[in-house]
Amino acid sequence: MQYKLSSTGEARTSDYMGTVTNLHDSDLERIKANVRIHNREVRTVSRKHGRAIGTLRRLRIMPRGPRAEAAEAMHRSRRAYDSYLPMGLGEWFDVYVGDDYAAQYELKRELDTGMTPGELRKISKLDHEIMMIKFAGRQRLRNR
Predict the structure, then answer these.
(1) 3-state helix/strand/coil string of the chain
(2) Is the dihedral of CA 113, 118, 121, 127 positive or negative?
(3) CA 52, CA 132: separation in Å to the nearest integer?
(4) pLDDT tens-place string over residues 40-71
(5) By percentage, how much of the chain surpasses pLDDT 90?
(6) Is residue 31 exposed (0-12), middle (13-18) or buried (19+ Cβ within 10 Å)?
(7) What angle is formed at CA 82 by the lines to CA 81 and CA 85, rounded to 5 degrees?
């Protein structure tokens, strides 16, 4: 793994770990394993004590490379990959490790309700179905 400065020569964000050219790089595999172990330990300790202890981490791998050429090769507009580049088209990959606020919220919600993540997903799905039924009823009233 190689640490690269930004294009202006300054340090990158604090979440930046380095750049790899191969998704099977040994340093990247080690970082993945460390994040996985850290998150498992945070969840285990938090569940044991009934409150969130520590923060969950998130590994992001951002593909980099020529975007316009990649878009043309895929028969798309030159601007198609301005905001992101698909993983399969990246020539090198920036690796970031930061706090995972969404997972932290879900862990806190699990600890507050006492329900498992699977049970919470089922409730969310049912809440969405209820909302869609209510929306359909309002649409019928509006279309009269």
Answers:
(1) CECCCCCCCCCCCCCEEEEECCCCCHHHHHHHHHHHHHHHHHHHHHHHHCCCCCCCEEEEEEEECCHHHHHHHCCCCCCCCCCCCCHHHCCEEEEEEEECHHHHHHHHHHHHHCCCHHHHHHHHHHHHHHHHHHHHHHHHHHCC
(2) negative
(3) 33
(4) 999 999 999 999 999 999 999 999 989 898 88
(5) 68
(6) buried
(7) 40
Q: Model's pTM, two decimal places?
A: 0.79
- Assigned token pair, 103: 């997972």
Count the residues in the chain: 144
